[in-house]
TrEMBL record:
GO biological process, any: carboxylic acid biosynthetic process
InterPro entries, per database record: Aminotrans_IV, Aminotransferase-like, BCAT-like_C, BCAT-like_N, Class-IV_PLP-Dep_Aminotrnsfr
Cross-referenced PANTHER family: AMINO-ACID AMINOTRANSFERASE, D-AMINO-ACID TRANSAMINASE, CHLOROPLASTIC
Family that this chain belongs to: Belongs to the class-IV pyridoxal-phosphate-dependent aminotransferase family.
Protein name (database record): Uncharacterized protein
Cofactor: pyridoxal 5'-phosphate
A family per Pfam: Aminotran_4
Top-level taxon of origin: Eukaryota
Alphabetic keyword roster: Pyridoxal phosphate
Keyword Signal included in the entry's annotation: no
Species per Swiss-Prot/TrEMBL record: Riccia sorocarpa
Length: 422
């Protein structure tokens, strides 16, 4: 089987061989073998062994390799070696590819190429490092020595933008400041200035729907553990112009990932590894979310959502003592109490925020998840057990409707008009 090797190069542990292959018959085969002094002529693991047949009937352990009869080809062998590569008895020495050193202009160009496909969702960013707003996603960067990056010493929060209004902005800003105080992060400026930055960032984006997410960090300054090296705390805000679509009725599981301890569960920090692992746990098991139980075995919260139940006409919600104080959850409590008073118990009798056992929760008539992006998400199954009748309940539907009306027609204290430029 004739083989003409044009070039061989390595980049880290990847070996690329380019050349031309003539396939004389359907049974022709080419195997890649690497040679080293320690591993004498041992075959590369199957994932890097390529079997070629004719162009109309080929098989390969690397499906991306394109083989055409008598034409040039390129194949990549993943191998932790930079020694020699033997192709059909022909040994070819490899060489280490040098890593380029870019100028600032070249880095900016690379960042623009990387972010171009993502330009639409990220419509504005404020950075206290540069002291202003950028509309170019390529410029939406954070210093690597900022402790938000390498220590996770930062807090964050989110506000929804809907139909040109910021929803519950003050509630979210107040929670951010509480989290910052718990995390011992000093404010780079006053609350009023911070709030104004958020409103102006939303306005500069031009986006009438989406999410405004913002972070407070101990700031840049070095790679030590203590923020004493940081000259000043930093603040970032990004407008993400993506409207969250409700997933409809979902199923949940009990999380196998340990819940955060009370001190860290009650502040909204950027250390979301337990939350991410809990969400992945749910996805692995075909569920939408995973529900945490507290150290005493009572229902706590989901990975990034609060939970609520309806039992015999009562809306039940876990106390916020050991979990994050959800802004949406608290708004639901306030509106549900008004709803119970107006309906005189016909639809909803009362609201209770207290400890809820797993047994009581799973035997509830209705269950829902509460989060700012979706507001209300109905739950019809938990750990494979049907909740209530297994359909979206009447109270869940009513609360969802009430929350939506609050979003589009709520009082001024929960709806801040975004001053877009004409």
């Amino acid at each position: 089987m004739p083989l003409s090797v044009c070039s061989v190069s390595t980049a880290f542990s990847r070996i690329t061989v380019s050349g031309s292959l003539t396939v004389p018959s359907d049974s022709a085969r080419c195997e890649a073998v690497y040679a080293s002094s320690q591993l004498q002529q041992k075959q590369i693991p199957p994932i890097a062994t390529l079997a070629f047949r004719s162009s109309h009937n080929r098989s390969s352990a690397a499906p991306s390799v394109q083989i055409n009869r008598g034409r040039s080809f390129t194949m990549t062998i993943s191998a932790a070696t930079s020694n020699a590569v033997e192709m059909n008895g022909l040994s070819v020495a490899t060489k280490t590819e040098s890593i380029p050193v870019f100028t600032l202009e070249e880095v900016a160009s690379k960042l623009q190429q990387f972010t171009e496909p993502k330009r639409k969702p990220y419509t504005a960013m404020y950075s206290s490092i540069v002291g202003g707003i950028t509309l170019d996603p390529a410029a939406m960067v954070v210093p690597l020595d900022d402790h938000i990056v390498h220590r996770g010493h930062a807090v964050f929060d989110t506000a929804t933008v809907f139909n040109g209004y910021l929803y519950e902005l003050d509630a979210h800003v107040d929670r951010l400041l509480r989290s910052a105080a718990q995390a011992r992060i000093p404010l780079p400026f006053s609350r009023s200035v911070l709030r104004n930055i958020l409103v102006q960032t939303a306005a500069a984006s031009g986006s009438r729907e989406g999410t405004l997410r913002y972070w407070l960090s101990t700031g840049p300054g070095g790679f030590d553990l203590s923020p004493s090296e940081c000259e000043k705390s930093s603040f970032y805000a990004v407008m993400i112009a993506v409207r969250a679509e409700s997933p409809g009725a979902v199923s949940v599981i009990t999380s196998s990932v340990p819940i955060k301890k009370q001190k860290f569960a009650t502040m909204k920090t950027t250390n979301y590894l337990p939350n991410a692992l809990s969400k992945m746990d749910a996805e692995d098991k075909g569920a939408f979310q995973a529900v945490w139980l507290d150290d005493e075995g009572y229902v706590a919260e989901a990975a990034n959502m609060n939970v609520a139940f309806v039992s015999k006409g009562t809306l039940l919600m876990p106390a916020f003592d050991n979990i994050l104080s959800g802004c949406t959850a608290k708004r639901v409590v306030a509106l549900a109490e008004q709803l119970a008073a107006k309906s005189k118990g016909e639809v909803l009798q009362k609201v209770e925020v207290r400890k809820i056992s797993v047994e009581e929760a799973k035997s509830a008539d209705e269950m829902m998840l509460l989060v700012s992006s979706y507001r209300v998400v109905p739950v019809t199954e938990w750990d494979g057990q049907q909740i209530g009748d297994g359909v979206v309940g009447p109270v869940t539907r009513l609360i969802s409707d009430v929350m939506y009306q609050d979003l589009i027609n709520g009082p001024p204290e929960v709806r801040e008009p975004v001053p877009y430029q004409q």
